[in-house]
Structure formats: structure tokens, C-alpha cells
């Protein structure tokens, strides 16, 4: 049975986990229908039940007068708003109306969404855009740079569990990829509305994400972004993941080349628990990755670890038993460590990881390819003292004759 790197197209439902990369053998159409059937049943129940009307606020008249009952305008407006909000057909019609308006390059939102799915995006990285599912919301915003006090146009696209950031090439009418963020790893907040210099702003931040401030065209658009991001983020955090929804269960053990490449991309885009230091995206491109067992003199037994080699650091991660979450365990400067072969133990794929300010670690590999790669990457020449470097004595200045 073969495997391929394919992600089923989701429909913006909650039955797909936040890490919805799937590596499955596709049967039939390859589209999950469980969430769609639940959504159809939910809509059917809402449309079949007659809307419940709340009693009027007050209907009191004075005796002997023909004065009509007084109705509070705010109550009426609130009732109408609740009625419209509870009607899925009205909400759908308003969304369709918004998507049919021209927003960029003479194109509507529907046309731009189709362009994102079908046309290549410049500098795109990772899996195709359509594999992230349906687009919940998108709009043209401005990215505020606090250091340079400048603003640049960006197009934000909200998927079920990810936020896509695109730059614009207005001359060629092209999108330029800038990054995609998992909603479970970011926080969103409104910038103070009392500041006249900061109208309609919201900020996105996180432990693995640089803070970004976006400016919307109106207060209504700002409210839509805040509500949608918070709603999808809560659903992402509440989602009960299972091994069938996690890419890690298919990528580990990473015993093939394509699995290693997919796992590298996964780590650069997925949240890592208890992360410390600068974001992982600032560490550069991973050079090598594998699953090993590490032990030292203080611990009894070995522990499974996922080690990733970056240009300047060796990153150490752990994975839970269900292959759902990745946790940060530490990092080692690459210049201060080296690998020593354990030739005394014949037949075992082990090497010793030593350094100046660390305790020696015994690393056990599962596959010979991993062992050879780590020895090649981490082995450094020993510092020998065959030629001692003695500093010469200071020169005595010559006395001048008077």
C-alpha cells in the first residue's frame, strides 16, 4: 500500500484538526463528508424550527387616552439584529453580497479566492493553498511598521485554522507569499480605539511569531477580523485531536527522504509547546532531522528525542506518545559541540555528543543513514596541543643616547 502527500479539501468545518496535513491513501473522491453532513443537519434544524419571538418590552397605555404604546427603538433594533443573526440564509446572502463586490485589481473576492486556489503564488512554500480548506474571510489591509513608521499593502486570507499573509505586486496583479500562521499559535487584540492616530488597528502576536499590526479600512471590517480570528482560534484549541488528524503520526519515524522534508516544513509552521528564544523561522533552514534516543549519566534509560540541525544550532524536541504535540527541550550552539564515534561498541549506531559547557550525551540512532549523517555534520577535529603557543616576552625598549 503506497502513501502520498495529499490533504483532503476541507469545507471550513470543525471536524478537521488545526494540523490538517494528511498523508493518506485516497479512496473515491477523497473528501470527508462527516462534517458536511453535520452542518447540513444543523442548518436544517434551524430552518425547520419557527423563530422564537421575545415578548415586547412594554405595552402600557394610559386609561382614557388613545396614545399608542411606546416602543423603545434600541429594543426594536436589537430584536431585528438578533433575528437577522439567527437566520443563516440572511447571513449567507450578506456574505455573498460582500464577496461579489470589487475589492482589488477590478476583481471580486470570489474571483480572488479562485485565483488563490488555481494560480501559482510567487515565492510560495509548502503544500498547495487549496489544501488549507475553504476561505472564511479575506480583505485588503495595511501592515504597519512601527520602526520605520511606514505602511504597506497586504492581503489577509483566513482559513479554518490558518492565517495567510500575502504581499501585492500591483503592476503584475500577482500575490507574493509572506507566510502562513497557525491560529492556535497566535493571539489577536484590538489596538486602543481612543487613539486618533491608530484607527481600526489590530495586533497579531505569539511566542513563535513576530508581532504584526494591521490597519483595516473601517471599524466594521476590524470587528469582522477580530471576531473571526478569535472564533476560529477557540475552535482550533478546543479541537480534540486524534492520530488520524495529526501529520506527525504519518511523518514519524522519518525513515524516508520525503518524510524528512515534510517534517521540516511542518516544524516551521506548527506551534511548539514551551518554546523559548527567537522564533524557529529565524534559525534558518533545517539541514538534517531524525528521531533518536538520548541518555546521559544522570538519567536511567534513554529518552526519545527529535533533533534538528540548523546552521548555527542543534535543536532538541520531544514528541508525545500519541504523536500529536511537539515540545521544546533545548538547543545547543553548533560551534561548541562535536560528535565522537563509539567504536568500542561494535554494531551499535551510537555516538557521543560532547561540548565545553555541557554534559556528554549518548545518542543512539535507528538507521545507519542517520548515524553517518550526524557523524559527518557534527564531527570536528580535536584541538591538539602538539605545537604549544607560548607568547613571546615583551620587547625591552632601547635607551636613547643623550
Automatic annotation (TrEMBL):
All residue ranges annotated as the PH domain in the record: 134-234
Superkingdom to which the source organism belongs: Eukaryota
SUPFAM superfamilies according to UniProt: PH domain-like
Compositional bias segments (type: Basic and acidic residues): 60-70
Molecular function terms from GO: guanyl-nucleotide exchange factor activity
Recorded coiled-coil stretches: none
InterPro entries: PH-like_dom_sf, PH_domain
GO cellular component terms, A-Z: cytoplasm
Renumbered residue ranges of the record's region Disordered: 42-100, 383-402
PANTHER family with a match to the protein in the record: PH DOMAIN-CONTAINING PROTEIN (PTHR46026:SF4), RHO-TYPE GUANINE NUCLEOTIDE EXCHANGE FACTOR, ISOFORM F (PTHR46026)
Protein name, entry field: Uncharacterized protein LOC108276035
Higher taxonomy: Eukaryota, Metazoa, Chordata, Craniata, Vertebrata
Amino acid at each position: 500500500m503506497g502513501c502520498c502527500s495529499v490533504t483532503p479539501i476541507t469545507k471550513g468545518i470543525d471536524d478537521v484538526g488545526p494540523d490538517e496535513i494528511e498523508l493518506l491513501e485516497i479512496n473515491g473522491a477523497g473528501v470527508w463528508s462527516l462534517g458536511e453532513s453535520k452542518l447540513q443537519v444543523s442548518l436544517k434544524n434551524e430552518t425547520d424550527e419557527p423563530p422564537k419571538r421575545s415578548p415586547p418590552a412594554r405595552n402600557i397605555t394610559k386609561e382614557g387616552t388613545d396614545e399608542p404604546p411606546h416602543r423603545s427603538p434600541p429594543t426594536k433594533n436589537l430584536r431585528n439584529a438578533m433575528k437577522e443573526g439567527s437566520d443563516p440564509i440572511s447571513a449567507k446572502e450578506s456574505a455573498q453580497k460582500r464577496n461579489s463586490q470589487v475589492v482589488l485589481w477590478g476583481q471580486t473576492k470570489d474571483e480572488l479566492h479562485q485565483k488563490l486556489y488555481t494560480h501559482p503564488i510567487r515565492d510560495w512554500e509548502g503544500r498547495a493553498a487549496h489544501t488549507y480548506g475553504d476561505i472564511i474571510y479575506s480583505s485588503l489591509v495595511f501592515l504597519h511598521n512601527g520602526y520605520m513608521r511606514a505602511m504597506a499593502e497586504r492581503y489577509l486570507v483566513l482559513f479554518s485554522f490558518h492565517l495567510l499573509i500575502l504581499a501585492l505586486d500591483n503592476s503584475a496583479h500577482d500575490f507574493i507569499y509572506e507566510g502562513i500562521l497557525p491560529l492556535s499559535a497566535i493571539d489577536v487584540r484590538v489596538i486602543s480605539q481612543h487613539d486618533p492616530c491608530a484607527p481600526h488597528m489590530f495586533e497579531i502576536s505569539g511566542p513563535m511569531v513576530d508581532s504584526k499590526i494591521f490597519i483595516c479600512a473601517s471599524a466594521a471590517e476590524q470587528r469582522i477580523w477580530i471576531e473571526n480570528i478569535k472564533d476560529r482560534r477557540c475552535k482550533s484549541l478546543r479541537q480534540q485531536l486524534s492520530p488520524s488528524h495529526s501529520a506527525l503520526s504519518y511523518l514519524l519515524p522519518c525513515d524516508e527522504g520525503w518524510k524528512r522534508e515534510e517534517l521540516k516544513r511542518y516544524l516551521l509552521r506548527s506551534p511548539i509547546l514551551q518554546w523559548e528564544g527567537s522564533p524557529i523561522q529565524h534559525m534558518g533552514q533545517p539541514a538534517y532531522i531524525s528521531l533518536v534516543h538520548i541518555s546521559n549519566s544522570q538519567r536511567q534509560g534513554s529518552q526519545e528525542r527529535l533533533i534538528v540541525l540548523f546552521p548555527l544550532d542543534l535543536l532538541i524536541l520531544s514528541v508525545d506518545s500519541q504523536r500529536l504535540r511537539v515540545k521544546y527541550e533545548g538547543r545547543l550552539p553548533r560551534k561548541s559541540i562535536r560528535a565522537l564515534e563509539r567504536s568500542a561498541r561494535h554494531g551499535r549506531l551510537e555516538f557521543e555528543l560532547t561540548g565545553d559547557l555541557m554534559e556528554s550525551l549518548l545518542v543512539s540512532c535507528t538507521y545507519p543513514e542517520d548515524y553517518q549523517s550526524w557523524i559527518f555534520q557534527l564531527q570536528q577535529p580535536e584541538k591538539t596541543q602538539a605545537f604549544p603557543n607560548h607568547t613571546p616576552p615583551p620587547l625591552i625598549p632601547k635607551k636613547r643616547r643623550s
